[in-house]
Fold these 4 entries.
Entry 1:
Amino acid sequence: MNVRAMATIYRFEMLRFFRTLTQSFLSPVLSASLYFIVFGAAIGPRMTELGTVGYAEFLVPGIIMLSVMTQSISNAAFSIFYPKFIRTTYELLSAPISFLEILGGYVGAAATKSFLVALVILTTSTMFVDLQIIYPLAMLLMLILTCLCFALFGFIIGIWADNFEQLQIIPLMIVTPMVFLGGSFYSISVLPPLWQTVTLFNPVVYLISGFRWTFYGQADVPLISSVLAFVLFSAACLAVIWWIFRTGWKLRS
Amino acid sequence: MSIIVDVQNVRKIYDGGIKALGGVSLQIRQGEILALLGPNGAGKTTLISVICGVANATSGSVRVGGFDIVKEYRAARSMIGLVPQEITLEPFGRVLGTTQFSRGLFGKPRDDAYLEKILTKLSLWDKRTAQLNQLSGGMKRRVMIAKALSHEPAVLFLDEPSAGVDVELRRDMWQTVEELRSTGVTIILTTHYIEEAEALADRVGVIAKGQLLVVEEKSRLMQQMGKKQITIQLSEAIVTVPESLEGYGLELGQNGASLIYSYDTNGTRTGITKLLNEISASGLVLRDLQTRQSTLEDIFVGLLSDSEQREASEL
């Protein structure tokens, strides 16, 4: 195994992250802070409690998941799309490195970046709410898994995209609506019965619900279904990536 | 001399059905400079891409240093450095950083002294902290070479190394290639500049329409296929070649002021003495004589035209 190559990709991706700190770090943190201010501080006090927690507290896991999911996708998608765009992939393809190691370098870096963003948002949230985390280890595990799963998904988008428009279209038109309607800002129990049923077809609901459970011990859907959703989503992404690696689709002519 | 790259019957048909390589076999010897000559679209870059792992072959096999490029890709690719035709660099990266990246990608431990040596040799050490998008075209191409050499490859592929560079830079590039060869690196370069192959190569391969037409020692190729011409300038112009000289296959030069005689340099007898005697006997008066050896370009054009004629006759 070419660990050094994987570490090289990882290190250079992280260097790029720190080189573009404003865009990659401050921007998502600022967005999350705005959600806290608008929904948490301004609107929150006027909302009724959701379960046993106040609305502002309820928001924290949702906002973290929103940031983590979108950031993981955009980080990973851009990291592999960029070498394709500037046509430097020849170097990856001609190096003695397996696709799995390429994946490890890029997805690992993308997941680390969004994990760091999540930690900063979590810290920022303590400025707005009195935060409690019932199961901190489970929370960290779910956070890491989400970072990795969505980075894998982003990697697929990055390989698929032929231009910047395609790079943006899935995160913007599919992922963002799914995350917004997946219980980031509300419990699905507040929806009318029909919409509750419709919402259950959104896989993001299970991921956010599971993450919120680690904070407050309460969830919209059974915990086991959240775990199952993680497993299925990761397996689907890995299966697609495995196929991409086997065929060299969009990478090797 | 041992074989370092062994290409066996490699075919490449792209997804759209375009046949880029039609069964190419080629053995590259350790330590040589092999020039692959061919017009645009001949299949030179595709062949290099297949050997280096950038493109998959439709069929056939390639071994580098005895390692199969598919089954033993790690060992095979570790031996190869690739400088593509197009200059593709991360614009915001820096010279030393990008060479360190390339070395790491090939799994080699950090070696600043070696990279300093390479960058110094390529006159880039002073620019090691410069941002890549601020370098000149020639410097960028040298950075591409530095990246390819960063992991100490045994075989270096240079795809059109002097495409789009000025004459002075081309000479610099040639000198760099010569210096690299002196360190024991096997070099394969593609070019459509005949003079480049003539100046650098030990052997020359001519490729056209996905077929390797010939691979031969440059000197032997010129000797075997090269013809020599003697241009006999006459004191007075003539309209037709005299009947007594018909057996020599003479061509009448411009305005009938000269006769052109082609002969084989390898022949036991060139027939020059006899021809000159016959010219004298026919009453023509000589003014001057010039001889000219056919260049690699003449051979190349000849091979291509033969190949086209063969193809036309097969249709």
Entry 2:
Amino acid sequence: MPHFLDFEKPIADLEGKIEELRHLSDGEINIADEVGKLEGKVERQLRQTYGRLTAWQKVQVARHPGRPKCGDYVSTLIDEFVPLAGDRLYSEDAALVAGLGRFRGRPVAVLGHEKGNDTESRIAHNFGMARPEGYRKAQRVMDLANRFDLPLLSFVDTSGAYPGVGAEERGQSEAIARSIQSCLSLTVPFVSVIIGEGGSGGAIAIATANKIFMLEHAVYSVISPEGCASILWRDGARAQEAAEALKITAQDLMGLKLIDGIIEEPLGGAQRDPGVTIQAVGEQIGDALDTFAGMDGDALKNHRREKFAALGTAGLI
Amino acid sequence: MSWLSEFVRPKIRALVGGNDVPDNLWHKCPACEQMLFHRELEEHLHVCHACGHHLRVSAKQRLEMLFDDGAFTIVDLPAVTADPLKFRDSRRYTDRLKDAQSKSGEREAILVAHGKIKGQDAVIAAFNFSFMGGSMGQAVGAALLTAADTAVARNAALIAIPASGGARMQEGMLSLIQMPRTVIAIDRVREAGLPYFVLLTDPTTGGVSASFAMLGDIQIAEPGAMIGFAGKRVIQDTVREELPEGFQTAEYLRDHGMVDMVVPRGELPETIGRLISLLRGQSDHDNSPLVAIPAPTPDAS
């Protein structure tokens, strides 16, 4: 049973009808015409709905349980993937996946937040909310990438770093800060893709990259719309307004020149065709890596630094 | 209400001068509720003489307390787009900014100045918590870059003094992007071979604590300061259990290995001056005023 979002109700109804027809017909009545008509309607509905999603609707799409997760990208795009565990200081953190593998034949290092695909794996991955250990593992892998000249890819999908007692005691702030510093010290190409939710410091800790892309319906924000609403509006229920005001969509951030490109999703969102989405992401990563061919380590590091030093000074005109 | 409260009290109030007394002559200590006379409070560097609580102070007061003889030169800060997102919640962001500016008399939540601390060249970037919670937007990020460049140009140590709830939400992603920008700033100081210290003051949380504020060569905290990544309420809602005693205080962080030392306000200039001198390899006959200072006790708090 596919999962439908609240605003997808008309689409869910139509698809329910199609399903019903198919179920009833058992081959005797010709239902092709009727189904075809309904499918046309579904497509129109999807085009209409997804053509003008509000910021809040995008938040819901970005959090869609059926959306491809980090692990799906890694298993499709990265050959010979070898996951690496642990920060060598305290623990392993399954919320932040790290490893080595081949992207189109070329050895790369990979980082990403893993939210999980079902209840069991969501719990195992702590819903993609990393602890300090995750960010320290990231630093370890960035160091490896530097030393062995491996381009770094990151798949960002987190509601934020984990807010827990242990995480605070073990220096969540320091771990994130140091991870940003590691990103900035890389002498290899670093390409980051926001595949779902880019949640604040927990996201930018592995997204301070040479090139940053966002999926069409992904969001990237300094604070969750709910959190912002409860602080500024003193009412968590005003999240819709907060989402709009915060300018968190890929389109908004492209307008602010904070990202380098938007990767188109299949009609109706990535969850409707994970395979096509993942291939599109792969194409974009490949193209981005190509643009850095022949650049030496210092040039790559300076490119990243100068880019961020120049960012975040202007605004909407 | 008895006849006493109705009739006698107004007369007593009239007797002591009533509304003629400016309301800022007395401050109540937020920790022990002791009434503190303003002149005395200033003499004690805004530390409660009854309980030792360190009250919050403005950026300007920080500069006056730390630089030798209270002498320093304010560094001009670059102008940035004031309201980049045309943000509006229950009020316009531009109105909130104007309010903060007129209340504080400052342009933004940060001041940068250069001068000497116990004879050592230093640049200080100090936050004003009273200015929109010391939140970090484009102006604050740009100010930290300026502070770093000033330190490098003047061959001086950089001291960051955060007092901030974190990123400025009203600037959306443009505020989040200040995290890497401030890290770039301190990397410039680092690469110039100059010391970079952080003095963590009450409070330091969120995107500020998770960027430049945790990357000091030496991390100093003021007694009792609240320091952390996530807010207490958020953590409580997540873990649904009692938080440990003293959680997220300066002393708690020291005990968990996150800061080097907790230093009372009065000892800060000596401590900072001494550390700069030690890191910069000066021998004690280099005209150092630090010779006579007693060694700090291991537990300065």
Entry 3:
Amino acid sequence: MVKIDLAGICSDELEIEIRDSMLRITGCRRDTHCRDGFIYQQMEITYSRFEKTIQFPAPIEGASLKRDYSDGFLIINLHRGEDA
Amino acid sequence: MLALQNLTLFPETVVPLGVGRPRSMSAVEAALATPEKLLGCITVRPDRADDTDAKEDDLYQVGTLVMIKRMERSGDAMRIVVQGTERIRVLEWKQQDPHLRASVQIMPEASTVDAEQVEAMKRNVQQMIQEALALLPNVPTEVRIAVLGSADPVRLAYFLGSVLNLGVEEEQKMLEAETADELLRLAHANLARELEIMQLRSKIASEAQTEMDKAQRDYVLRQQMRAIQKELGEDESGEAAEAQLLRERLEKADLPDEVRTEADRELKRLERLPPAAPDYHVIRTYIDFILELPWRKSSEDKLDLNEARRILDEDHYGLEDVKERILEFLAVIKLRPDTKSPILLFVGPPGVGKTSLGRSIARALGRKFERMSLGGVRDEAELRGHRRTYIGAMPGRIIQSIRRAEVNNPVMMLDEVDKLGADYRGDPAAALLEILDPQQNNSFRDHYLDLPFDLSKIFFIATANQLGPIPPPLRDRMEIIRLAGYSDREKLEIAKRYLVPRQITENGLTAGQFKISDAALELIATRYTREAGVRQMERNIGSVARKVALRIAQGEAEHVDVDENSVREYLGPPQFYPEQARKELPAGVATGMAWTEMGGEVLFIEATLLPGGRGLTITGQLGEVMQESARAAQSYLWSHAAEFGIDPEIFQGYGVHLHVPAGAIPKDGPSAGVTITSALASLYTGRRVRPDTAMTGEITLSGLVFPIGGVKEKVLAAYRAGIRRILLPTRNEADVDDIPEDVRKDLQLIFVSTISEVIEAALEVLVANPPPPPLPPDATRAGRTPEAEPLTVKGQ
């Protein structure tokens, strides 16, 4: 199971990709509150595109994948496939 | 758009920025008001960077598009964290205020032309990074992994560009690089340069470190050594104990006030110094030296005159007048103990016992004896020391001898004062002037000591072979006592009393095993040696004794008696044939006497007429003074020709050749004047000089005879040669007392004061060889011409 802190993401824009033993998650966090004339006093949140790569000890290609996005966490469940 | 000063941003790098200018802050705020939070960053050309807001053409064309990740405010300024994303090229500037705005084009990623080369360079760069990281110990492991693990050469190059602090121009070049090849080439070059600098810096640092380590190590070792010494009980905290010891000695020592003050002061300085200080040992040695000097310690004089006479007689045979002078001085010291010690100068040939006489004086007085040879001393500092500022400075010889003597009133012998040298380092004779002046030497200052020391209690005795080389002021300060040579009779006595017994002991014989007859000793004295003293004679006796010792040791004999014949056997044929009086002298030859350093000698002066010659030819290595007295003699005889019955024509018609054998030995001095006059008078009159007569004396052009020196030596030499009739200047009459009685009673001494008296006493009355008649001047020339021919032929 992989659990990632990913708040404020439109889950439709999340892309999850598996290649060999790598799990790659890319997406974009957009600032939905901003408009013209809006001024920040302080900005702690990093917006814009992001990319995360997780390396596994064994190939995970062919594993069955189930994802769940709730309360700002992305949870990915990976099950060992028949041939793995 | 944000204008950056002194900094270029690269894609893929995260950099914190401080933003302060209103225009920049306005740009950041505008960027933050967009959902993407993107900001273009472009760098100001380094030559245009100043405090004013940058214009369009102050800026580069290529910059970086960054994403603002964080922003916070502190006071009037902002801090933002940005991450580079893409490279951008400015197409057109849209707006200057309130912030810069431009339309830009995103540039494609640097393309790879030659993949293999890029890969090679990447590996190379990674290698160098590893080297660089080795020099930077504080880089976290994550960074190492991140850098080395990075597979993308372009990212690696951008990372290096941001990290290396290359300066705007270089950074901009890397940013603008179109291909990965060029980018890596730039990164490689810059990294190489940085690495070199880092290595150099680390080398310098490590050298400094080494030096520090060495000092520290020394310190630790020293501490350990001290601990070990303490364990061994060798020092009770080292220097303190040493200073304490010196202080105790100082308190016990009997020192004059001035010396004590100075010593105290030096000791205080010593206590303040660490023992490793270079001055420490200098001061310690100095205080040691002060403590060792006999400032007030004197030896008690034995002032029994009879005992003194006995000792002097025991040690030396003859030399009666010298002993008498010494006893006189002792008598004065006895009557007035506070009197200044005398300063004596013994002058005489080698081997006559000057040095041993000094030793006897010390023995007679009961004083310590110190001897120093001044022969060849050229440096004033040798006598007076070097100042303490010099490394290896030492006190002078005078003060060192006093320390050795351990009393301040030794008999100090200054040997060979006539052989002092002098050069640019100073004249030691000048230093002697102070040392030997009774008015000044009670506060003699050695350069090293720099404290006044009283030398006035020292009994100085100087010795010399000749008076001549001693500077007159120095001579003036000393009582001159001459030791002339010994007569053969005296030598015989000395040999019997001292030399033979000493050689018997030295060669391991006993008195019963070795006996030598008087005749044998006399033979050694006259035929095997030619000297005023007895040194060679002793050597010869020694070699006879050795040969005897050999025979006894081989068991050839129980004891050996040596007589004249066995001397010849042991020493070989005689070495010297003394110039004997000639039985008969032809006209023109006279017997003279000469003084040499080895004693006296007899010499003959020969003159002959040269028909048709001119003037006076002089040969035989004669010095200027002697040549002049020959000329004076001739002139006197010429001017008084009638008085002596000489035909004045002879002076014009004939030249004279004067010769003095032996031709190889240089001779000089005025004392041959009388002899030359006799020889010339004999030549001109035809009356022979009496062969049993020798003569000496200086002459003047007015016909007077002046006194000369060395009477004793000369008379003894004539006596040895078998001459019994001697002409001496009247004013030398007093010197006759020096001649041993046994010699004098055999002699007929005639005192003369004018040349007329000389001629009357020296020449036979009869005309034996009448001089040839004077030649007429014309005949002279005619006679000479044919003789000249064979000479030219010979020349060819």
Entry 4:
Amino acid sequence: MAGATKLRGPQNAGTFASWLSLIGRLGAGQVFIFAGLIKVADPAEVARSIQAFGIIENDSLISLAAYIIPWTEIIAGVLLVAGLFTRAAATVILLMLIGFVALILNAMNKGQELTCGCFGKIELFCSGPLGRCNLIQDGVFAALVLMPLVLGGGRASADALGKAPADPYADYGEDEDEAFD
Amino acid sequence: MIKSYMLKLAGIIVVGSAAGITNWAIQPPLKLHLDEMDEASGTVVLPTKPKQAQPSQVQPNQTQDNPAVGNDEQAAPDDADSGSGTTIVLKREITLDQARMLFENGLADFVDARPAKEFEDGHILGAYNVAPDAFTRGTPAVIDFFEEGRRIVVYCSGGDCHDSHVVVEQMMLIRPELTLMHVFVDGYPAWTDAGLPTDIGPDPLAE
């Protein structure tokens, strides 16, 4: 790559954005893969968490959700890390995070002392009952996932494959994902 | 462009749901509730003697909390002298008043499903400590001590605490003959709020 003085030149356009997007993709993606794998391994625990929130009353729906949520987390996480369908995957994760935050706020409002169940029984970032820490945690994930959502997958992504790798204008938005905004 | 994005978005959600539904379909159904107790197992005959002090205080609440409780308990004070005893029918999940009644009549062993640390800080008098973690390290020794036909009440910290349900499930898996197991749903906080007897210190049977 060119020297630091030339970083603003058109040849390097999008380099910074690519890195930022990569950080966000890897950060949020692997957390979601990890969370999903843990939950897939113990669906009964997930079902109990969902049951404790008291939002869904129907037992079959709870069981279904206990399987669908972790699998969606894994698939969206893998796509995000790979940079395939980056923006769509980032949107799915963002939507899930919004849902989780809504659930946490609802539980806090009702004064329920719930355990998170975000990572099954493992307390990765937050311990104790659901609270502000979980909101901050989800906020950080949302910030991470916003990077690829806004910037696209960047250079080191599956979305960028098949496009001329040396094209200095590759990040200027002719790729269909990037032209979205 | 937007159409392609929406398609991908929908695709991810559909694939995720499909994977989840497939997984759900091939797995045995998740057990979200303990099996309900049949009426015969749930029937408790109270000994007549210690009842006399309690019935007026305990039983009016019981009928409100649990409609399944037999009406014949209203006759308790009269029956007490005749020696026939009072029968009530308990469900799998019991209320504070029912737990207290079992405790005061010595009709049940109590099992604390909270972590050892919380157990040491305070537990129902005479309770044993069996936390769900204990089952991951093998069978907790305490379980062998419970007698068949003896009622066991498992509790944790109330609220959404599910550990008592897990312990009941695990204990019934290990010793299927222990059918008279109850979950005291309101748990330890309700017990202390009611000012009922507690104790501190570790479980002597825990390793």
